[in-house]
Amino acid sequence: MRIGVGTILRPALVLLLLALVLRPDWFAPVFRPLAPEGAPAIYARSSLLSLSLSHLGLVAAATAAATLVAVTLAILVTRPAGEAFRPLSRTVTNMGQTFPPVAVLALAVPALGFGAGPTLVALFLYGLLPIFENATIALSTLPPATMEAARGMGLNRWQRLVQVELPLAFPVILTGIRLSVVIALGTATIGSTVAARTLGEVIIAGLLTSNTAYVLQGGIIVGLFAVLIYDALVQLEARLARHTGGRRTA
Amino acid sequence: MGRAGWGLSPPGVLFAVLGLGALLLPFLTVAANRIVAGDGVLPWRLAAPAVTLPGTAAVMAGLLLGLPSAWPRLRFAGSILGLAGLLWLLMQGAPALLVGAGDYARVSPAIGFWCLLLILMLLMADALAQLAPGSLARGALLAAVLGTLALILWSGTLSQLSILQEYAGRREAFADAAVRHLALAFGSLATAAAIGFPLGILCHRRSSLRTTTLPVLSFLQTIPSLAMFGLMIPILGWVGDSVPGAQAIGIAGIGFAPAFLALVLYSLLPVVGNTVTGLAATPPSALEAARGMGMTPRQRLWQVELPLGLPIILTGLRIVLVQNVGLAVIAGLIGGGGFGTFVFQGLNQTATDLILLGALPTVALALVSAIVMDILVELASPTPQGTA
Amino acid sequence: MIEIDRITKTYNGVKAVDAVTMTVETGTITVIVGTSGSGKTTLLRMINRLEEPTSGEVRINGVSTLATKPHLLRRRIGYAIQGHGLFPHHTVARNIGAVPRLLDWPKDKIEARVDELLTLFSMDPAQFRDRYPAELSGGQQQRVGVARALASRPDLLLMDEPFGALDPIIRARAQDDLRRIQKALGSTIMLVTHDMEEAIRLGDRVAVMDGGKLVQHGTPAEIIAQPATDFVANMVGEVERPLRLLSLIPLCDLVEDGDAPGAALPADASLRDALAACLWTGRSAVPVERDGDVVGRVTFDAIRARAELRA
Description:
The complex is a heterotrimer. Chain A is mainly alpha-helical. Chain A has helices at about 1-20, 30, 50-75, 85-95, 100-110, 115-140, 145-150, 155-190, 200-210, 210-245. Chain B is about 70% helix and about 5% strand. Chain B has helices at about 10-20, 50-65, 70-100, 110-130, 135-155, 160-170, 170-205, 205-220, 225-240, 255-280, 285-290, 295-325, 340-350, 350-380, and strands at about 30, 40, 105-110. Chain B has a three-stranded antiparallel β-sheet with strand order 2-1-3. Chains in contact: A-B, B-C. Chain B: This is Osmoprotectant transport system permease protein. Chain B: One of its GO terms (cellular component) is plasma membrane.
């Protein structure tokens, strides 16, 4: 039943999003009543397409870097040599995730100044934790029988890691990446308060000029991006989980 | 872990190397006023050597005590000694640097201080992870840390630091923001719990309700916070304008109401989701036995399902509380008050101290909430730890 | 007395239990045995109305179970299941006292009952009262589960594969315990199992179910000696039938005067034990003792004759 709703709703939302970003003028009649007297109903100070691309670019770059670093660290602490760092890494991930993303962003400004830099660093730092946590759990809870079989058939450590451990852990790591991406999309929006070029600019402009039309426009675009990306990653996970026998974490 | 004798703790070695490196970075910054960038001062240049030496020595000794892997208590003591050294350097350095620096001069902690603080806290965390204290011991430790912090701030020994000078100028605004922030975070938690528990129990009973409710709630959770707060503005503005009496009770497009509503919406998924998961965690055979011995559905809920699900339900509340403390910062952007007001004012004025005045209490509040909730979750676990 | 009268349960047009009629005498153990899907568990669950019958009824001491609200009915009927179903967040004492508490017994009466039951199940009350289920062994958990089902002195005890999760040695001990306690308390028990060995060992009467129907209901000896259908014969196991039969007959039935070499067997041991002793030690007869005195012997030939006669 849910699949039925999804198959109709998904393309519709994608089309709506594309129209909002590429042809914002089409929606002028819709937003007109919300804009104050005499103010424009459609954000035109910069192109919504370039803001979207910059927004997504920031998220993609930060998430890619965070994935690379987090998975590497997770591999290190799940090897016998890195065992001593396990309890510490657990505490750091537990406590680190309580840091509010906005605070991380704000604290990056004194250190790095304004612009895309602090946003990128904040997104990267905050994105590390969910991926690291999931990767560590996934790599340390692989089915013992499979690992024993891999050793028994003569794979060396590197082969076991690349051919068995990482592929089996991948769906769970992907869940971490999804959490990370959702947080990054939201935090990047706030990044416009520190002068990063993101879709948050539209919302902030609306808040500053009391132009509800801008707020709604920006909010809907960011919301649609987040929901569609989240949904796409969930679908991907479900597909992968089917292949590996449905190993998933909450 | 069981390496006995004089073995070195690998994290301890890492902390020592990084910590000694951080001692070579500027410890405090002196600036002519609160806006301009300042000059960094190295730890041993803060004041006369007779003053800086004990502090630097305490930090180094603390880092070295963190090395032996077999004595977690010693490592813990090392982290305390190191932190005391940092405090000493702050207390002694700030007044010394302000002498003759001008009326508007500001002294604030620099990169070296923050790095050392982080490293020493990690050392403490590592030692604590080794010691694995029980829930009561952790509660006592938290109380001791907060008490010490309060004592230091109240005594005024750090009042020369710029962030506290910033605070001195806005005592009332700060108290207001704190009350507002707590009201937003805890008020939305309470509201979400009042709605979410009954809804979660209903979802547990009816799978049709569950399959429609949970996706909607996780959809809400996905919407970026700024967008969510923004979207609440037109909705509540419309309610305020069109529903008679709504404005009288504070419902309007800007301010507390939209922020509060956004937080409640974000909170529903963890509350409802964890209530459903918690109630479903009862072993099927225990449930079958409860039915078989003649418990009514209400008795099963109160005597079996809720007590067994309590730790998971409380974990949901922990997620909500930590998340709301952080998200309430965004309320500062839409006039909802709270610590976010300082953060965004600070960003506007490029005044670092003002940003810190908003961000540091938020971080502390989130951390304390997480630790307290973790302790509660552990206390609520019905069976003795480790045997279940 | 429990009377089951043409009870039927239909799921989506398929009859899971098909017009089963049987009577259970007070103070006896009736074992319902069958393969999975035979309807045995559904039959049991219809007695305390965990499943509502599609038609037919159950009467306990002449009163229809439909006359009472289901949850009130269940408080009068003990229920023990596979994997014990203990409440992990309650102590042993609270678990055992669960039904008395539902029935609002006074506190001191509940405490006394808990201690009495723990003692009956050979568990020291002082030692076990305040433990949590997770701190007990599998066998202990199972005993607490049965004790809980017996706590309110129910008219009837229903057991669904109660020993299914136990390993063979603990299982045999649990079966002996159940027999002993049932004799001591005079309880009426209905027990479901898929294991014919268990049925023969425990049951005063055995009811064999197949495809929702009751195919045979009788004493263990009848089931072994005269299986009503091929299915029953199959369940009993064609090859082992003589041995099963011998295991039901005590030595005192065949004891004769005379001497025999070697160690003596007690009079209440079974012919199967005696046969094993003969084969293992190469004797043609074993001495039989009662209370330490040798009362005669049982010969190999006599055992063989008895097995041939019935099989």
